[in-house]
Amino acid sequence: MDDCAIFTYADKDFVNTVSSPNKSRSRFDTALRSGWAEKMDAGLFRYHLGDLETRILPGPCGFIAQLNIMRGTERRKPQEIVSIRQNFDPNLFNFNKINPKELLFELQKVNTEATSEVRCPKMRCKIIINVSPLEFGHCLLVPEPDRCQPQILTPLAVQIGIEAVLLSADPGFRVGFNSLGGFASVNHLHLHGYYLNHQLRLESSPTEHILLKSNLYRLVDFPSGFLFYTQGPDLGLTVSAVCKLTDIMVDKNIAHNLFITRGCPPNREGDPSSARNGVRIVIWPRLSCFGVKEESAFNVALCELAGHLPFKNRKDFETITEDEVKAIIRKYLLSEEEFSKLQMHVMETL
After folding, report:
1. Residue 190 catalytic?
2. What's the CA gap between 108 and 96, in Å, rounded?
């Protein structure tokens, strides 16, 4: 990769109070949004992303459906994935082979505890545009791409994902991860980031406390998943717990998706009107899917499990119901019995 602009930050740059989407922007938002728009104007994407048609499906889940036909026809063909622990293959496409113009900036943390700001060599991440965007600002967060790591979460990747959300003043900025077998299309460690100007149900969903020591919860709403919550800035314990959980799933060959978003503090009731100043990290264990699946209205990955549904054709977008969406998603989830067994194993291990 060629050199690119460096965006430095420290814990003091984290935004403690977020407002409504687009009401205020942090330094991070300004750099990402303006750089992304410039790349779009320069024609570096596979298609022009205008205002997407959006509808909220009637029902308690509040699914947000969007019509994005071009992503279904113009995106790069996903790689053939045969294992959750598949090795990195330098001969296949990876993010070291992109057009250098697709780079937005390098995200780099600095240590402000010293007498002067010192860059932290272990906290570096390339931010590049996703040339087949789902929504405005859709980018890829690629930690240390030169290390050629496979698509398995590391503490650095998790920390960068959480800190990117904390750097944004917009509650609509989210970060997510698809494991191999969970519809990751490139086997080179990366996360997705993008803006969505709608609140998601999971950001205020009621929870059950599973493990006090690890601050681990379970989402009560559909689809059920594991949840961690943090308000920063000391993220070490949260990052460690998240990675221990995903390592368990890798060891047990269970595909998974992760979603990081501003959210309400976890409680049994759930209140959509509560302030979303903290960060919810949700992990869904799921059934593995290998090869390209096009038999349904959408592929069930990080967005769909979070309640954001990009559709590739107008008929499905206009006619699908909440019950039909839940039926599709349910096909990719662990059974209640399997989830409970995994939960017991997680509690014993953590």
Report:
1. yes
2. 18
